[in-house]
Design a protein that fits this description.
- The chain is mainly α.
- It contains 7 helices and no strands.
- The longest helix has 20 residues, at 26-45.
């Protein structure tokens, strides 16, 4: 998805089909996914201090990956990749403490100048079921982001 959306993102934000000044924010989701997968792999093999040190190293590597690739940095406000990683870490590490997680996510969003209330409400009312009623729905959402970017590029 990140690769597919990159050209529409560059067209919409810089007017060029290829611009390495910033990568689209979907790369931030990929980096967060890779970090969580690595953390899970490490947790299956290590425990104690080695697990904590490994997790810290993985988080630092993920943040550096977001910053060096300039993920979501086109608007020069903040790295959306690093912000996404922050939210993923909050939701992952505090998943067993919902109220603390929601408060922390709301506070983190406010500090990052994001209105987090809507997203936190969705998490709060999550019913525990994964997926959509129809399998084609997820593909519609995947197509929606690059199509909207292409429309924005055409209008601009």
């Amino acid at each position: 998805m990140a690769l597919i959306a990159e050209v529409p993102y560059d067209l919409a934000t810089s007017g060029k089909p290829f611009d390495f000044g910033s990568q689209n924010p979907v790369f931030g989701l990929f980096i967060a996914f890779a970090m969580l997968a690595a953390m899970k792999w490490v947790a299956q093999r290590y425990q104690g201090a080695m697990l904590v040190i490994s997790d810290i190293v993985l988080v630092v590597v993920a943040v550096l990956w977001d910053l060096l690739l300039r993920v979501g940095l086109r608007q020069h406000l903040m790295s959306l990749g690093a912000v996404t990683l922050g939210f993923v870490l909050i939701f992952w590490l505090m998943r067993s403490r919902e109220n603390t997680m929601m408060f922390t996510a709301g506070l983190f969003g406010a500090v990052m100048m994001i209105a987090p209330g809507v997203g936190v409400a969705f998490v709060h009312y999550y019913n525990g079921k994964l997926g959509y009623k129809h399998s084609w729905t997820k593909w519609m959402f995947y197509a929606f982001y690059p199509v909207i970017l292409l429309i924005c590029a055409a209008v601009a």
